[in-house]
């Protein structure tokens, strides 16, 4: 697998802190890509050496230990969480047992079992439910929306749950053309059907119509949300081999995380177990063999090592129950407000808050929120569903822990109501707020719908989405895209559910558009003096226009005038 480097600190990467999705691509140039990954990351064969060393030590007699040697690779972790050397310990003194038939029986004490070994032993039965996911993707070409990009293949992980269903990551089957699953120890790939894709939570649900696939496999059982320092074992099919892989670690952090694929913030677990390309969609088991999460992304940074992220069971169960309740995935609702902290004492005094009152101040309200007329800017949210909100926007989570109050909102389902208590003009008011999904002016995803476009006189009109910006300006679109578009992407709110940001993406040069060749990604504000609401309304206005000229008013006071 390319040139093998010595273990040690990773070479500095030119990119800054990024969170990357992890699923393994396979193509004709797979060998080249594998070499690149090996050059960027440490060689991870040391885990196999550690297992072999532990197994050899267990087979040796306690009174005749093998010669001590320095173990290779990273020292494994003990129950207390500190680092422990892999060298074998000296044999312990025999333990005296009670008299048996007048003789004292001397028996060596039981050998201690490392925590990760006991976890792996309990996980073994559930490992048969972990499958390898093969997907062929056909991604739309957002810059040239009348065509698609070349197909490519990827492999990732998944696992079987009750009801003859399989869970994996949404990004593992994004823009899928064909999905196939292969069980552990099997040589057969089974065609799968995608039942639901939860873009925000990065979870997808699959099924297989062939009954043979489900034979001899017990579904994975879900466990409770783990505590800090609880042992976890990540199982999957990462890069570096074709067979199943097991890595272990502990829960390092539990908080609201940024989901890179979904462009949302939901509850997440940070673990120190290795999560590599191909691990995406694989389960994370606790020491009882129950699934406590789904591996989905990791942090790649020159100053960080072994930082992986897992989708916890509350988010997974929300996705499953949402599908069972509605027959489709409806998403995670939002309150529809932007708020600011109230940690400044003068600000709290100016808002009429008493010394025993805490909360956050509403800055803006989404116009598309169902109950946007109830709440007002400068209202102070005191509690959500009876749970008091602190001045920093957090609520009690578990013993000794606090979490952002958006966690309470994400526990609800689309269409549910919540009791919100606010302070307005020194008066406490209560509202039953209906929760709905977020309607962005610039959507983060387009689902399976191909991008829409409209061409007239060589001008290509399209609606701006995040995939479009990524297609035009690459991964660093937040730095390279035009400032006007970025400002609307980060701060603008849709005034209606069907509002779109329409731009002239490019000009196909022709005699009729001479002089307009340099117009690129410029917003269209109006047509013949009428505001442009979305791409469909623009097309209808142009098609129904009887004027001699077509006049488009663009951003930066720019204008386009062409004859019919």
Automatic annotation (TrEMBL):
Domain Protease Do-like PDZ: residue ranges: 442-560
GO molecular function: serine-type endopeptidase activity
Residue spans of biased composition, Basic and acidic residues class: 76-98
Biased composition (Polar residues): 15-26
Membership in a protein family: Belongs to the peptidase S1C family.
Keywords, ordered alphabetically: Hydrolase, Protease, Serine protease
Biased composition (Basic residues): 1-12
Segments of this protein annotated with the region Disordered: 1-26, 51-105
Bias (Low complexity): 51-63
GO biological process: proteolysis
Descriptive protein name: Protease Do-like PDZ domain-containing protein
Top-level lineage group: Eukaryota
UniProt-listed Pfam families: PDZ_2, PDZ_3, Trypsin_2
Organism: Gossypium darwinii
Start and end residues of each PDZ domain: 344-435
InterPro entries: DEGP_PDZ, DEGP_PDZ_sf, PDZ, PDZ_sf, Peptidase_S1_PA, Peptidase_S1_PA_chymotrypsin, Peptidase_S1C
